[in-house]
Amino acid sequence: KPSTSRRTKSGEAQVAGMRLTHPERVLFPEQGVTKLDLARFYESIHEWVLPQLARRPLSLVRCPQGRTDECFFQKHPRVAIPASVPRVEIAEKENRTSEYVYVETAADLVGLVQAGALEIHPWGSRIDDIEHPDILVFDLDPSPGVGWKEILRVARTLHERLESLELTSFVRTTGGKGLHLVVPLEPKADWDQAKAFSKAVAQQHAEADPKRLTASMSKTKREGRLFIDYLRNGRGNTAVASYTVRAREGAPVAVPVRWDELNAALRADRYNTDNLRRRLSALREDPWEGFRQAARPLDAKRLKAVGVK
Ligand code: ATP
Ligand code: MN
Ligand code: MN
User: Fold this and answer.
1) In CATH, 6-122 is 3.30.70.1350
2) Residue 10: is its pLDDT beyond 80?
3) Backbone angles phi and psi of 99, in degrees to 5
4) Which secondary-structure segment (H or E) carries 226?
5) Helix (H, G, I), strand (E, B) or coil at 6
6) pLDDT above 60 for 225
7) Is 151 touching ligand 1 by the criterion CB < 6 Å?
8) Which atom of ligand 1 is nearest to 179's Cα?
């Protein structure tokens, strides 16, 4: 499919109808990936990435001068984001509200690139029903020394634990070191219930194998262990979106995979802006086929099953 990008006279470019300044700016020096390359990358996979992001409040990791310069995690990027990218006011503590950006179109997504966003981190709920998450994320964080085989083992055993609660989990590489298990939910429970539920599941899983696992943030508890990070599931917390890039060496991308693709040869940073399109064009079906249909509520029965009142 031909790209809709073009260069304009002034040295600016346009991708998916969004104006890009400094298109030649190198964002990933090791790969020579420029701002224009990244915008075209997202345009070329917009059918995959937009459903992951659409209508979710976003936090961004912005690195306006590229990933080896200064980067900052931003919840409220304000002026840096082109005005055409939609915003939503969300209630915060003490009767205040604050503004979050969200995306609906490929142009909006390119607008985030225009602002130097090298990572995109959505909420687990949509702006239409902000208080009720429609996904849970279990973030498997290996400490140094924990091998890939161990990460795979924990992903599979946690998948089974969730199955026993009649919840289906889907797995993705993070582009970093670990894996994320993502559970589709019917948006019924609130954030406090979602966090309490995921905490209970993570703690029960860790307690069954305390030498190798922990659900505690504490540095000493984590040492030598794999940390089951359930803290992605609180109101205002985020996890990186599927099919989005990480501000790390190699321009890696977080990528959904099928359970039977998890093997010794896969790695958390296996896919990147260079090789992802080849994977996508070779796929016979969405590796997360059936994701939405698998959604179940965190109802009283499930909360009770893990000891949450
Ligand atoms: P890895 O596989 O290397 O752990 P990851 O994306 O899971 O990759 P984590 O460090 O475990 O990285 O972070 C989990 C999530 O926490 C991120 O995806 C992001 O949404 C959120 N996060 C990261 N940095 C910040 C930050 N500075 N402030 C708030 N939330 C953050
Ligand atoms: Mn992680
Ligand atoms: Mn984490």
Assistant:
1) no
2) no
3) -95, 130
4) strand 226-229
5) strand
6) yes
7) no
8) 2
DSSP per-residue string spanning 56-92: --EEEEE-TT-TTS--EEES--GGGS-TTS-EEEEE-
What are the CA-CA distances from residue 256 to residues 150, 276, 284 (Å)?
19, 11, 14
Q: What is the CATH number of domain 131-302?
A: 3.90.920.10
The boundaries of every CATH 3.90.920.10 domain in the chain are: 6-122, 131-302
ipTM: 0.93
Residue nearest to atom 28 of ligand 1 (CA): 73
Q: Is 174 in the pocket of ligand 1 (CB under 6 A)?
A: yes
Coil, strand, or helix at residue 140?
Answer: strand
For residue 120, pLDDT beyond 70? yes
Parallel, antiparallel or unpaired: strands 226-229 and 213-214: parallel
- Tell whether pTM > 0.80: yes
Cα 309 to Cα 303: distance, rounded to the nearest angstrom: 7
